[in-house]
Design a protein that fits this description.
Layout (H helix, E strand, L loop, with lengths): L5 E7 L8 H5 L2 H8 L4 E7 L5 E6 L5 H12 L5 E7 L8 H13 L7 E4 L5 H19 L3 H13 L2 H8 L3 H10 L2 H15 L15
Parallel strand pairs: 4-5
Antiparallel strand pairs: 1-3, 1-4, 2-3
Helix pairs in contact: 3-9, 5-9, 6-7, 6-8, 7-8
Length: about 210
């Protein structure tokens, strides 16, 4: 029986950040862990200084969903993410080794990078485009107001405006305006693009070129 592919994800704040992941995320990390329990290969671990963390995942298409959830949990602090593939067996495939590999990739990231993916089947051009999509997504999220962030979180849970309105105790029209202001359609389009890109087996390019013949 083939061993399922696993992935290491490291996330962090800048070295000079005034934020602390534990402070800004509060109980949201625990909520996130429960939400993604089925795909967590090992729990989320936050470093002692509160500037970075790691998690191990066992489903490729959900990796960016976890990236998104972590950024929303850490709002308004901006996060960087590094995603690496984990060897299926041996010492290099142990949890600690996978976390270390992801942290090493995170440590090599430039300030302007948002997502660094070290996946053998992905080209440098694809990885650069994926970073651009992640950058756009993070920019939208960081421009949220608290109300828009609350609306997006509620919408992810309840899926329907009527249910979100009841949850937030506001009118459906107010919810509609919040979701529009949060650029929900652009967020969802970016998230779906990343899920498609991370599917197995991988495609040779992010957007396949059409034949000109």
């Amino acid at each position: 029986m083939a061993t399922a592919q696993r992935y290491g994800l490291a996330f962090g704040l800048g070295k000079k950040s005034k934020f602390d992941i534990n402070q800004v995320s509060g109980t949201r990390i625990q909520e996130l862990s429960a939400r993604f329990a089925e795909i967590l290969g090992a729990p989320i671990v936050i470093s002692g200084d509160g500037l970075k963390g790691t998690v191990i995942l066992n489903k490729s298409t959900a990796c960016f969903d976890v990236v998104v959830a972590l950024q929303e949990a850490a709002w308004p602090a901006p996060l960087q993410h590094a995603l690496v593939s984990a060897p299926p067996a041996g010492a290099a495939g142990q949890d600690d080794a996978v976390r270390e590999k992801a942290l090493k990739a995170l440590g090599k990231m430039k300030k302007y990078q948002v997502l660094q993916a070290e996946l053998p089947s992905k080209s440098a051009d694809e990885i650069a485009m994926a970073n651009s999509i992640a950058d756009l997504h993070r920019t939208i999220v960081l421009n949220f107001t608290e109300t828009r962030l609350a609306a997006v979180r509620s919408y992810r849970t309840y899926k329907r405006q009527a249910n979100v309105a009841a949850d937030m105790q506001v009118s459906q029209q107010a919810v509609s305006q919040m979701i529009l202001g949060a650029r929900w359609r652009q967020l969802k389009a970016a998230e779906q693009t990343m899920r498609d890109w991370l599917k197995q087996p991988q495609r040779t390019m992010l957007w396949p070129m059409k034949s000109r013949s």
